[in-house]
Structures are given as structure tokens and as C-alpha cells.
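Sequence in, structure out.
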Amino acid sequence: MTLKVHHDASMPCSPTSSFQEVFCSSLSFLDTLLSRNLEIHPHEPVIFCSEECQKRGLSSIHWQECPVVSTLRLLDIKSFLALAYRIMMKTSHAKLKEMIPLLRREAKDQPPKNLGFNKNGVYDSSDYSALYHLTTNKEKIPGHELLVRCMEAFVVTKFLQLSGRYFISCDGEPFTPSHEDIVLTGSTLIHHMMVLHCNSLCIAIPIFNVTGHKERQMELCGRGVQTASSLLNHSCNPNCSDFWYGTSVIVRAIQFIPAGKSLTISYGLDIAEDTRDSRRLRLMTNFHFTCTCEACENNWPTIKEWPPFDILKCTRCNEGEGINPCTKVCPNCNLNYNEGGMQGGAPYNYRLISRKTHKVQEDFFIAKKNILEEGSNSEKDIKAVRALIKLFSKYVKQPSLGLLVAQETLRFICFRRGSCVYIN
């Protein structure tokens, strides 16, 4: 599906930022309890959520994966091998043999910003070229890690050979691959393994207890590479979050995003629990960059040290500890917000915004109770959550406990609207 980006600065936490199909692996569904236990193979019980889901699974490439499923489950804890195997099978050896030389030439001759687009100049997230041209960080990978990527590629290549269902002629008959076929397959897989370790994410489905609406746990069920959202930069304080709808992903805003500001997501870190040093270490180890987001640059503490009350920020300098609630003066730039509004020299009326923050908090607490305890999905309650996020994003000094709780409530709503499971 073609990447489409919608953004309206007047709509906090607005609907869709991007929508895309993904390359994904569902082998870990073998260990996931959904709702119905359906036998699809005499040797492997597989759990599907419905008969329709079962039919889709069996009608795709199950016959190509069937010979190696059990072995992949034993070898592949994080599903990287399974995902690489599936990508190769879905693309086919014949297509790769035709496409890889062209893609390698593109990577050599074109600047990175021009890569991944199809012949019509559209970045199609379901197109193999978009996947192939994702970043590999090859120049930053240490030697021992590169050796591991080569070993992973070797294992998947052997699986493809032993399956008897990858090297298929135009007549549909298996053939013995030549040395050139093996080299092409292996080298392509080395490239894929580097891409997947940089860009793929775990797929986790939320499980809700129908008797306790706020009880939720995330169940790991596979790994996917989302070519379009992989282009989004990381922030430890992201303004977007991704949600699974089957094998598609919707990226939704979870903060007020001014026009022109970059969309960001988190690469799996928890700003409330992880220190800056631990976050930066994980990002450097897994993605080979040093994070310079607002939270890291200002060394935000963990949630235990966040202020228990919300402080309005100075929108002129946006520095220091925020506006002093007693004097209404910014201690960093000495701007007096007690004068009120633009006529008094301050960017906004302190008393007016303070009253608004108290009002949206009152409305939010009611909406939060309805959503988490009563299972409400009403537009009135959702609007109350969005109103707090918009106001706090614009005027409250971060990190803010109130903003974090509202964002988690919005995520809760979005999880319920996406792929999820209800249990009793």
C-alpha cells in the first residue's frame, strides 16, 4: 500500500499519520494464545483468531514454510531468521535474480534520499525495493556482529535449499541451484539481515480482560519490518506511536504536533523507567547512533523524580524550570507572565492558561475513569483525552506526569481499536 501522510496541526492526536502494509513473520503465533485452537497440520497445532484468519494464513505461503517451521522455532528466538525466510519466499528466487543487480546499481549510483521509490515515483511500503533500500548501518557494524549476520544468512540459505520450495523453475519444478544462485541468495540475505536488525520491530498484540477493562498485557506474536515507518526518526519522547491492524500499521499522533515538526516514534525505550545513559547505550548498541532528543539533551530524570504537579513553561525561551507559579516570572529570561497576554509582553495569559489546564484535567479524570473502568469508547471521552494532550504539549513543562498518563490512556484507546484479543 502506498504511504500516505496526513497531518493537521489543529488536530491533536489526530487520526492517521501513515498507513502501510508490512513484511512480517507470524511463526511466533504458534506460541500465542488467541481465541481458537485450530489444527492446520498433523504435526503442529497452530492458534488462529478465527477461521477467516486461518484461511488467509494457509492460502499465502504456508506450503513453503511448512518443512522448516519446527526448526525455525527452535533456532530463532527473536524471529529474524523466520522474517528473512518469509521475505525471500514471498519475493521468489526468479524475481530476486532479476531485481538484485538493478537494486545494487541503484544503491551505488543514487543518493539515499532517492532510493526506495517505484517506477511511478511513489514510496510503496509493500514494494520489495523499499525494503531493500532501508538503512543497514554496514559501515558502523563491528566485525564480530557482521560475522553473526553472515552466519544467519548462511542458515537461512540452507533452509531455502532444504525446503525444496524456493529454487523453483518457471514450470513450477524444483531445481538444483548453481553456485551463482547460492552466492546471489546468500549475499542478498546478508544484506537483509543487516536491514532487519536495524529496522524490524517485534509485533505485540494487546490482550484485554473483559471483566477488568484497564487490565492489559502485551503478547509477543512475531516480527515485522515496516518500510514506511522505518523512515521515522527516534525520540525518547515521541510524538507518534504505531498500532497494528492485522498486517498493516497505523502511526498515530500522541502529542500536539506543530506544522513543520518532524514525526518521531520510540525504538522500544521507556522514558519513564530508563535513564538517559541506559537509553543511549541501547540505541548505540542496536541502531548505532547517539540520541539527541529533548529528553536526552536535557537529561530528563526517571518518573520517580518527576514533579508531582504541572508547571507552565515559558514559550519564549523554553528553558530552565518553567514559570514560577508564585511570581509568574520565568527565572531564565525574567519575562513576567503576570502582565497577561501579548499586550503585556508575555506570549500568553498565565491565569487563563492555568484555569484551562485545571479544567481539562477535571474532564480528563472523568474520561479516564470511563475508559479504563467502564470500557467507554465515546467520542466525548476521547475528546477530553485529546484536549489535555494538546494543552499540556503546548504549555506545560516536560517531563509531565499528567501528559504521560493522558498519552497512555490514548494508547489504550488505540490498542482497543486495533488488533487485540479479549479474554475472560
